[in-house]
Amino acid sequence: MKNKKERYKPYRKHNRFYNIEDEVHSGFFFNTIYMLLSSIKYRVRHLFRDVSEWCAHENPVEKSKKLSITWIGHSTFLIQVDNTNILLDPIFGNASLLFKRILPPGILRNNLPHIDYVLISHNHRDHMEKSTLNYLKKRNNPMIFIPSGLGKWFRNRGFKRFNEFMWWEQKEYKIDNSDVSIKCTFLPAFHWSQRAMFDKNTSLWGSWIIECNGYTIFFAGDTTYSEHIKYIAKEFSHIDIALLPIGPCEPNSLLKDAHMDADDAIKAFCDLGAQHFIPMHWGTFHFGAEPFDLSIKRLNILWSENNKLSKKQLHVFKVGQRINF
To answer: pTM for this one?
Structure first.
């Protein structure tokens, strides 16, 4: 690890987190209304479009010794390795009354295998679904890793098995009846947090590195492209798989300070030096003023045109699809 003084850190003021000092955010309410109005024609159009081409029908396995990754939709993944099941940013329903699903969840919630760990990147409703977390708590009560500042939300709802993380903090757990352990490190992202009207940035946001059974997996959470990617690459010189967001992408002038598009995601992938690219945060909700599959079409074109990526692998998942590594 590098000296801690060299690490990218959040700025904190009056018990709120910021990506940088003197950061200015545009109005949340205005942006939401603008995006709703901008995406009306695509919202209407998708009602009459058959999206079955993006849906796989694979039954989930209970456990996997080898690394297996299933895309459930948006930023929700099931990672299975060394008989351990990890769920990332769970959402199985709609993001809100205004933002309903286009693609159905690739696995129904009650068909999930036993979940050992849940990793949360931040508290936005399209990344942290209360009903699913309550369901998992009642079913088998997995350990939940959350950003700093979210503990109060979980305690108030009766959760007891959770750990809060600051950027660069890591924890390692021994896997039951095994010589293998899982190590999770919470890392920077350039984004924000908010779940209610007045709680903006009272909790942190971030990305994750998961290390288990010889694999290193980077989960970017929700983020724009910024220098934090290069700081992560300095700390983790070998990353096997990068799960990176590619949307929403239009209008770029409004979204570029909060989200990656396909071009930004490829830049981040190259900075990380990873071998496998898995795109996420596209197709599931109409968060931008574009067709739901525009982000993935752009990614495919940019990937094919970039000679530097000839020895890398792009994995475009359908929802519900499982890939073994």
So the answer is: 0.93
